Amino acid sequence: MKILNRVGVKFMACKTGKSGQLNDLKYAGLCGNKTHEVSAKSRRINTSGQLKIQQMAFMLMAVFIFFVLAGMFYVLTQSQDIVKKANLLERNNAIGIANMLADSAEFTCGAYCIDADRAMVLRKKVPYSNGTLWKVTSIKIRSITNSTKDVLCTEANYPNCNLIKVYDKGAGETTVYSYVAVCKRVKEKEYVEYKCELGQFIIGYGVKS
Amino acid sequence: MIGRNKKGQEEIVGFVLIVLLVSVIAVVFLAINVRKPSEKLPSAEIESFLQSSMKYSSECLVTAERRYTFKDLIVSCAESNEKCLDGKSACESMNYTANKLLSEGLRVCADCPNTAYRFKVYGESNRTLLSLKEGNCTGTITTALLSLHTYSERVRVEVEVCKAM
């Protein structure tokens, strides 16, 4: 409004022809020409409006970019969590297969229990020994308590060993295990005892050769 | 000219205030999200560890022919705390066996997949029979819970394992 008033005064000054005021005018050369005076006025108003629009546009852009960045950060953290959960689910699924195999009639001595004596016999019998019965690339049973390093079980050293290899196709594989109680008959003094240790039922899966 | 500058300054102050407000909201949101305790995920692996541990033949013989399993030790500790032939009580033997099973079954080390574990055996009204823990928890927390029924009460066995994933 101040700008408008000032322009108005100047316009009036041109009309009245007061020389003192005329000297102050920026547009003195145009004095007496009404159309030029009006265009100067509108140019100033337009410039101010454009500035405001520009300011608002920058503001909107800044707010938009801020929210986009915040959103991207949130999505990134959330997706990392999803990947973790997916990995765990995949592993749980593989462990489920190991549990199912450990629970099969050939091995089991109850829930989460493997009969090591039976596994020792199975490793010599077809189709268990060549791995055509199960769709996994290897089956191993390892006792983890009371053993510092792996000793492969054979007829000669059983039961003083901790790793029973039922079969192993030797293919490049990923292994997954489920915990089981590995139970075997052991002679303790004058008794034969059925002793259980904590062990792992390890299955291999992957690209078959 | 001074009036226009003042107006411009007021707008800049407003803009700064809005940016500050949004930043504060974002920081509060992030703080809440980061401090949110990690979700405990049920795990088939830990479940199998817990279930198979219960069948473990301990060193506690109550008669020459009867050896207690880890489950028997927990139940005995919760009820009558019987004595083993070697003179240890059921609770002492349970403590020893649990330490052995956890240290060998859920090994915690810098290169291991397990970063920490917590093992707790508690009766009704949160009477703690055994509480063991090792390591500093980082990564995903996996858990399994088992209920054992004795004559007098229900005993719960809980395992939490932190896995670096």
Give the secondary structure arrangement, pairings included.
The complex is a heterodimer of chains A (209) and B (165).
Chain A: H1 2-16, H2 19-24, H3 34-102, E1 113-115, H4 116-122, E2 138-143, E3 163-168, E4 174-188, E5 191-205
Parallel strand pairs in A: 1-4
Antiparallel strand pairs in A: 2-3, 2-5, 4-5
Chain B: H1 2-35, E1 40-42, H2 44-53, E2 57-61, E3 67-69, H3 70-79, H4 90-105, E4 114-122, E5 128-135, E6 140-149, E7 154-163
Parallel strand pairs in B: 1-6
Antiparallel strand pairs in B: 2-3, 4-5, 4-7, 6-7
Describe the 3D structure:
The complex is a heterodimer of chains A (209) and B (165). By secondary structure, chain A is α+β, with helices and mostly antiparallel strands. Chain A is rod-shaped, with a radius of gyration of 44 Å. The model of chain A is unreliable at 1-30 (pLDDT under 50). Chain A has 2 domains: 2-65, no CATH class; 100-205, no CATH class. In chain A, strand 4 and strand 5 (191-205) form a beta hairpin. Chain A has 4 helices and 5 strands; from the N terminus they run H-H-H-E-H-E-E-E-E. In chain A, strands 1-4-5-2-3 form a 5-stranded mixed β-sheet. Chain B has 165 residues and is an alpha+beta fold. Chain B folds into 2 domains: 1-36; 40-163, Ribosomal protein S3 C-terminal domain. In chain B, 42% of the residues lie in helices and 29% in strands. Chain B contains 4 helices and 7 strands. Chain B has helices at residues 2-35, 44-53, 70-79, 90-105; strands at 40-42, 57-61, 67-69, 114-122, 128-135, 140-149, 154-163. A 5-stranded mixed β-sheet of chain B has the order 1-6-7-4-5, with helices on one face. In chain B, a hairpin with a 5-residue loop joins strand 4 (114-122) and strand 5. The longest helix of chain B has 34 residues, at 2-35. The radius of gyration of chain B is 27 Å and the shape is elongated. The model of chain B has no long low-confidence stretch (mean pLDDT 87). The A-B interface holds A 2, 55, 59, 62-63, 66, 70, 77, 84-85, 87-88, 91-92, 95-96, 99, 110-113, 144-145, 177-181, 183, 191, 193, 195-199 and B 3, 11, 15, 18-19, 22, 26, 33, 41, 43-45, 48-49, 51-57, 64-65, 67, 69, 100-101, 104-105, 140, 142, 165.
